[in-house]
Specification:
With about 230 residues, this protein is α/β, with parallel strands linked by helices. The chain is built from eight helices and seven strands. It starts with a strand and ends with a helix. The relative contact order is 0.15.
């Protein structure tokens, strides 16, 4: 079994916040892949389903961001999982909006949700870092992550969510490259040309020799009146 954890804050007040992009990603996966209805367990909202050959549990902690690790730790112990079976999807200030990166292990970079998970299960879990950009100054971070995504971000946000759903089976299988490729295909699909190429005018071959006009001036004049 794989455990996908989305980070966010509970309640409709926070539903479209930048900080809740992890919740949004799990909602898309559950909807796209026909997961079971959400129910309450482990201080979280959970549902389960199958991605490829993997049984996957989706978990959205309802403890508020700063205590996310409590919920993750409970679920991990109940199912006898290890940190390597867990993938956490979370907002990332240090990535430009719409960027996505996969990472295994490492630090929490000051993210309070990751900090809590570190405290409860250690650092050896996988992460999907979902870029939301940085407000430019550390004092503005709190207000920035707790504001809703603006309408201008809706296009790339929708594409990112669809890409995550497309690549979810690869993520469950541990194939980060294939997962990232699925995301990239949504965010930057290959261009397809539906228009025919412009017809080029026939060009005279470089070695072509022009036929010399041998008519006399009088013959040229008479030809104009024929």
């Amino acid at each position: 079994m794989k455990l996908f954890v989305g980070l966010g804050n509970p309640g409709s007040k926070y539903a479209r916040n930048r900080h809740n992009i992890g919740f949004m990603a799990l909602d898309d996966i559950a909807s796209a892949h026909g997961f079971s209805p959400w129910k309450s367990k482990f201080q979280a909202e959970i549902c389960d389903g199958t991605l490829g050959d993997s049984k996957v549990l989706l978990l959205k902690p309802q403890t508020f961001m700063n205590n996310s690790g409590q919920s993750v730790g409970e679920a991990m112990r109940f199912y006898k999982l290890t940190p390597s079976d867990i993938v956490v999807l979370h907002d990332e200030l240090d990535l430009a909006p719409g960027k996505c990166r996969v990472k295994q292990g490492g630090g929490h970079a000051g993210h309070n949700g990751l900090r809590s998970i570190h405290a409860h299960i250690g650092a050896d879990y996988g992460r999907v870092r979902l870029g939301i950009g940085h407000p430019g100054h550390k004092d503005a971070v709190s207000g920035y992550v707790l504001r809703d995504f603006p309408k201008a971000d809706e296009t790339w946000l929708d594409d990112l969510m669809r890409g995550i759903s497309d690549g979810a089976a690869a993520l469950a299988a541990g194939d980060g490259g294939k997962f990232m490729n699925a995301v990239s295909l949504r965010l930057a699909p290959p261009r397809s040309s539906t228009s025919k190429p412009k017809e080029q005018k026939a060009q005279k071959p470089e070695n072509a020799v022009s036929k010399e006009d041998t008519r006399s001036p009088m013959e040229k004049l008479m030809d104009k009146f024929r």
